[in-house]
Design a protein that fits this description.
DUF3567 domain-containing protein, alpha+beta, 34% strand, 2 helices, 28% helix, DUF3567
Length: 97
């Protein structure tokens, strides 16, 4: 778990889990050195107090978009605008335990 971004509006945490064996119903290709990566990104909208966890193709799309944006030396507002496009899909309320 790595905190990638924290602004007054949003926080983004990356979860990266190495999986050495396939899960039930999955299989590895004929490459014994192949390791699967599981994980994703948790995005918290601090104002709406909602969060979303994205994984798979959507997480890859998010990561690619962030990397492209970083190459342009973005402002915090630029990053927040990009993150908001994903955070707006969040419906899970943030609950403190």
């Amino acid at each position: 778990m790595h905190m990638l971004y924290n602004s007054p509006s949003f926080s983004v945490v990356k979860f990266d889990i190495q999986v050495a064996e396939p899960l039930p119903g999955e299989f590895l290709l004929a490459n014994p050195e192949l390791q699967l990566n599981r994980g994703g990104f948790e995005i918290v909208d601090k104002f709406s107090r909602k969060e979303i966890f994205i994984e798979g193709a959507l997480a890859q799309q998010f990561q690619d978009g962030v990397e492209a944006l970083i190459e342009q030396d973005p402002s915090e507002e630029d990053l927040d605008d990009f993150i908001e496009s994903y955070a707006s899909m969040g419906h899970q309320p943030v609950v403190m335990h």
